[in-house]
Structures are given as structure tokens and as C-alpha cells.
Amino acid sequence: MNPFLNVFAVSSLLGLSAFQTSPTPSAAAPKTVRVAQGEVGRWAGNCRRCSLEKRAWPAVNGTCYYPIDMEMKAGSYTISRRTTGGKLETAQLIVTEKPCRPEDFPDFPKKEYINVSPENQKRAAREAAEVKPLIGYQTRVRPAVFDLPIGKPANPLPKGEGNFGACRTFNGQARDRHTGQDYPLAESKSVLSVANGRVVLAANQFYSGNAVYIDHGNGLISEYFHLKSFSVKPNQTVEKGQEIGRVGQTGRVTGPHLHFGVRWHGACINPGFLLIDPADLPEVK
């Protein structure tokens, strides 16, 4: 009997094909990470440079961080990293929507912040124009002089009021979303720099009151608003934990507290995510 037919017959009895081949291995599933608006994702391990769509920046101590602006459109984005060995890797970033919490001030006492005079409108516009290039995305950034988690802006630091990104109304009039986290601290309480850095602005502003902005390198800017007073000046170098001012109630406020905010590579994010162990941040897997 033809040996080929014997093979075919045996294979048929076993329910196999004489021409069956090993299955083709499927391509590895793409790496992904899900990050909510206003939060931060990470890609750990031997990173040198990171990118999100058309923006790029250096890694921080070997880890790529991806800050997501509170108003970034929900959807899928491409992120990448260049390893210290020169390898380029990509992954998918899924940005999920985080609805803003409504926050209303029905009887706001400082009427000049409700019906803003033309003079103060011009002042606020000038101040916004001055701040915009300081907190926006930069193609070139100073080297990072911080690591995560950053320090606390006060010691001890009470629980925040959970109003980052809140959709605010004052006496029924809608205003911009809240860009920081408010901490209920008593007037004159010491305010601390959360990391080493350089003061880029310290001034009295119409809405923010006495305000300090500090550049910590790698595009990270910390903001401290409504201070009673500040004890630093532009271009001054500060250290982590150094007093930079005192809690107050200047600007558009209802009482004493600390507004603490951060901008990272131009993204407005919840500063609370930089105060926790970075291992607890969403990770590319």
C-alpha cells in the first residue's frame, strides 16, 4: 500500500489533517494604560525620553510620566518611550472622562469679583498673559530637580476639599473650572515649597491674590494662591520644604485657605496625584 495513503488514513481516523501545520503565533497584545482626566499615568523602567502624540519630554529618574489635562478629550492616544538602550516602544493611552463636580457660591461676599470692572478685567487679562507662557508646554525644559512623591505644601497637610476641576458658579454666574486643590488651613499657616526649584513669579494678582509659581524642572510648575504674604522673589532658588509664604484670603475667596495647583508639561492636573507613591499611579502594562 502507498505509504502516503497509510498516513492519510491514520490521520483521518484521528480527526487530523495530513497537511495540518502548527498554528501561527498571534501578535502580542499592545500595551495600554487607562488614565482619567486630570490624573497621571506612568511607564516605569529604564526610560530616557517620553512622548504623547506630538509632545515629548525627558523621563524622571528612569520613569516616563504622562500628565493628562483635566479637559483633555476622552479617547485613545499613542504614547511612546525611548529606553536608555535606545529602543523605541509604543503603547495606547486611554483617557477616560471624569465629570466635574458642581460648586456654587450663592452669596459670594466680594462683589468686585462678580461684577468685574473694565479696569480689573484688563488687569486680569494682563496677568493671564504673563502666566500663560510660564505654565504652558515647553519644547525645552530644565532638568528635573524633584522626584515623586513631591513634598507637602504645608505640615501637617489636612485632607483637601476635593474641588479640583470643579465647575464653579458665583451668585449663579458660571466661571472657569477650578484649577487646583483647596486645603483648609488657618490664616498665617506656613506654606512650603513642594520641591527644589526656582521661583518664576511672585506677585499680587486680581483673582489669585498673592501668588507664587515655582519651576521644578521637567516642565513641572507648582502654584500657591491666596497667600497672606510671600517671602520669595522671582529667580530665587528654593529648596524642598522651604517656607515661601503664609496662608491668607487674598483674591477671589470666601475665607482663608491654600489653593495648591500644578501644571506639568502644560497639563492642569490634580496635585494630589503627585503626593502619593508613584507605584499607585496607573501603569502601562
UniProtKB/TrEMBL annotation:
UniProt superkingdom: Bacteria
Record's keyword terms, sorted: Hydrolase, Signal
Pfam families the UniProt entry points to: Peptidase_M23
The keyword Heme is annotated on this UniProt entry: no
GO MF term (any one): metalloendopeptidase activity
Domain M23ase beta-sheet core: 177-271
Signal peptide: 1-28
InterPro entries: Cell_wall_metabolism_enzyme (IPR050570), Dup_hybrid_motif (IPR011055), M23ase_b-sheet_dom (IPR016047)
Protein name per the record: Murein DD-endopeptidase MepM/ murein hydrolase activator NlpD
